[in-house]
């Protein structure tokens, strides 16, 4: 499963590059922290590949950010098209009886 439904590869890459820039993390360092090949980290940073959703916690840990920080615009609503906010949907199991 890919993150594509939540954000495009380009959107994810833009946010990933911003966080790496803020924290002075290179592509090589990101790859080392995540235990992946540098080519994978490079593809994520260029928006050529989107990681699976299962890897989101690993990204957050490697970058030292929360999942919200990883997927949310730090400017809160200034550019909602770039960083769509996560909006949970309720299911029948969540409904009060």
Radius of gyration: 14 Å
Largest sheet: none
Number of domains: 1
CATH class annotation? Mainly Alpha
Low-confidence stretches: 1-5, 86-93
Q: What is the arithmetic mean of pLDDT? A: 77
Total beta strand runs: 0
Quick one: CATH superfamily? lambda repressor-like DNA-binding domains
Query: Strand portion, in percent?
Result: under 5%
Question: Cα distance, first to last residue?
Answer: 32 Å
CATH-derived topology? 434 Repressor (Amino-terminal Domain)
Walk me through this protein's architecture.
The chain is built from 5 helices and no strands. The protein has 97 residues and is mainly alpha-helical. The chain has one domain (3-71): lambda repressor-like DNA-binding domains (434 Repressor (Amino-terminal Domain), Orthogonal Bundle). Helix 2 (27-34) crosses helix 3 (38-46). It is globular.
In short:
With 97 residues, the chain is an all-alpha fold. 45% of the residues lie in helices and 0% in strands. The protein has a single domain, classed as lambda repressor-like DNA-binding domains (434 Repressor (Amino-terminal Domain), Orthogonal Bundle).
């Amino acid at each position: 499963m890919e993150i594509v439904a939540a954000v495009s590869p380009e959107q994810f890459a833009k946010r990933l590059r911003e966080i790496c820039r803020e924290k002075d993390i290179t592509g090589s360092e990101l790859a080392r922290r995540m235990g992946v090949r540098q080519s994978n980290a490079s593809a994520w940073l260029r928006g050529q590949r989107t990681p699976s959703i299962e890897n989101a916690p690993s990204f957050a840990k490697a970058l030292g950010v929360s999942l919200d920080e990883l997927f949310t615009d730090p400017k809160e609503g200034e550019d909602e098209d770039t960083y769509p906010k996560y909006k949970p949907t309720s299911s029948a199991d969540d409904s009060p009886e």
